[in-house]
Every structure is written in C-alpha cells, then in structure tokens.
Amino acid sequence: EVQLAESGGGLVQPGGSLRLSCAASGFTFSSYVMSWVRQAPGKGLEWVSHINYDGGRTFYADSVKGRFSISRDNAKNTVYLQMDNLKPEDTAVYYCNIGTYWGQGTQVTVSS
Questions:
Q1: Strands 78-83 and 18-25: what pairing?
Q2: The 3-state secondary structure of 45-87, one letter per residue
Q3: What integer pLDDT is reported at residue 45 of this predicted model?
Q4: How far apart are CA 100 and CA 83, in angstroms?
Q5: How confident is the model over 24-53, as pLDDT tens digits?
C-alpha cells in the first residue's frame, strides 16, 4: 500500500523559512518522480515542484523558482521541500504526490 506522510508545516513570518518532508512507503521510491503540489484557501491545486528518480533534475513553478528547493534521500525514502523567503501567497496546504497517490498534507501559513 502506497503511503505518503508530509510533515514540517507551520506558521512563519514573511521572509522566513520552512523545510517540508514527505516520508514514502509501499513502492520502490528510488524509481519514481516525486512532486509537491499545494492548495491555497479557496483555490485549486497548484503544482510546485518535482524531482526525478535520482535527484539529478529538478523543476519548479515560476511562482517559487529561486526560493524553493526540492531534494530527495532515496536511502530514507524521503523527499524534501526547502522553502525560503516565504511570502503570504505561499500560504497553502502542501501535498506530496506520486501518480494518483497523495499524502494528508501539511499546512503552511505565512503571516505576520
């Protein structure tokens, strides 16, 4: 059974940083692209970033490029999202995603 468990969200002031983690199980983690997707209050899903199977290629939405960094540790079956210089518009529930599988999400709130 595929399981994805996000953690690391919280309340942070504008300009602050957070590091999200997604622990995965139930599949061969090192063989799959992993994605982060977010949903702001009252809005639809927005793709944020994804990383290829060995971490050698990363991709970002324009809205987060230069501020967010995705990485993975295949030995720990975990994907990370380092978020720096956070803005109020980054407030959302952040989900880890592979195909049709989603975690429960972790809330990120950026507010002074």
A1: antiparallel
A2: EEEEEEECCCCCCEEECCCCCCCEEEEEECCCCEEEEEECCCC
A3: 97
A4: 25
A5: 999 999 999 999 999 999 999 999 999 999
Coil, strand, or helix at residue 31? helix
| Residue in the structure block whose two tokens are 């978020």 | 83
Amino acid letter, residue 33: V
Report d(CA 75, CA 84) in Å as an integer: 25
Q: CA dist 39 to 25, 54, 74, 85, 93, Å?
A: 23, 27, 26, 19, 5
Q: Strand, coil or helix: what is 30?
A: helix
CA 46/CA 95 separation, integer angstroms: 10
Kindly state the helix (H) or strand (E) to which residue 32 belongs, with its residue range: none
